[in-house]
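2 proteins. here.
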Amino acid sequence: MMIPENPYLLLTPGPLSTSKTVRAAMNRDWCTWDSDYNELVQTIRSSLVNLSQGGSEYTSVLMQGSGTFSVEAVLWTCLKPDSTILVISNGAYGNRMAKIASMMGVGLEVLTFSEGKQPDPEIVEKTLRAHREITHIGMVHCETTTGMRNLYAPIAELAGKWGKVFILDAMSSFGGIPLDINAPKIDFLISSANKCIQGVPGFGFVLADKGLLQECEGNSKSHSLDLFDQWQTMEKNKGKWRFTSPTHTVRAFLQALQELEEEGGIEARYQRYCTNHKILIRGMENMGIRAFLSPEDQSPIITAFHEPKNPGFSFEKLYHLLKSEGFVIYPGKVSQAPTFRIGHIGNVFPEDIHRLVAAVEKIKFW
């Protein structure tokens, strides 16, 4: 049976629309024991460190599963029974990190900010002063619940000042928003294949300070999610995974990395995403549809919009009408207001966003 070409663009925070050449890279099989395949893995690992500007002090580890598997792998590997982590949350994915930590039985402090508010460094420092037992700080960079681009740098600086290990969930930002993992220092950065690097789902990855990762030997109470053990196996066996790896996804990711470089690197991709976002915001505002966040807090990854108050509006209707026009969007995830979300990352370009806006205009709920 013939598989049809993509009938729509995925305007989501991932999985997202990929290029034909990324998909075509999956059209052959690989042996996980073969040196040809393991060399691909090593190329990917070094490329990720270079993208982060980590230098020789950092390493990268690939981990099977969704991005959440890699978040959990970092927590299992970093945290000891007597550790205490401070999780800073203003959305669903910060809450998810806190839930994982709570199930591990380690010490946990959670600072919760509203979904439309930046984490306050003064409150964070006050918490560190009051809870000297805190050993780690974790937070999300781009909270796709709302599209919030959290200002992680002041929190990372506090982690350095107070001698805490800083963990950043950069799932939906790494590769699409420029950052330097050393300035300020991020000890463990977590992301996924199917986000801004524009690969397909199947694995996540962690960029880690080598010295700190070395100290984590024996911490994990999970065999499958032992990041240290995965790292040691990849190091000693030159790209070999402990268990069966998603070979097709890995090859597609290498192609995606090559296409990122051809586009001009992270800065060029960031500019494209920003342009996509500006066109979307302008078009929706012209129809009276307001973004949930203020402009200074908005990431170029995904935007949450207030649902129109028109009694004829329903997300389901909007979703299916846009799908018929060739676009898939996301339902809202904001707890305090009815919203829907539209992503602007992936193999999506300004002309695509112009077409989307024209499609929304045709619906006329409002």
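next one coming up
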Amino acid sequence: MFSPKIVAILDKWLARTLVLLMSLMVLNVTWQVMSRYIFQNPSAFTDELSRYMLIWLGMLGAAYVAGQNKHLAIDILPQSLKGKQKIYLQVIINFFILVFAIAVMIGGGANLVYITFVLEQKSATLQLPLALIYSMIPFSGLLVVYYQLAQITSSLHTLKKRT
């Protein structure tokens, strides 16, 4: 279930999605600048679209860096440890990230999606359901959970080999 092949496929898919989102966002913002300053007729939807694309980019990017184990961290303690102690610490760190993703990203994000869905909130200009926009939060949380479980499984497998 947490095979390196599946993780590699997920990594590739996420990386390509992030590149696509960033490219579309650059085009969107470029059009906004051109329409405002060159054509003197600002486009109404581009500001809102870039805001929502930034939310999606940030959430998917957070999941991607968590999967790559490149997230922001204070690494003084892990650098000073060696062997089994370092692996145990990594498992503990991954566990806390897992708990955060489940509680905040999945739990809180699903609650946000539910509330905006029930209230039928829509974006001001694009008239998109906000539940659709915010659904990226629990989805990214699921990706983080998968990555953390894969890393914990890998670390425990490494520990088992050493004993």
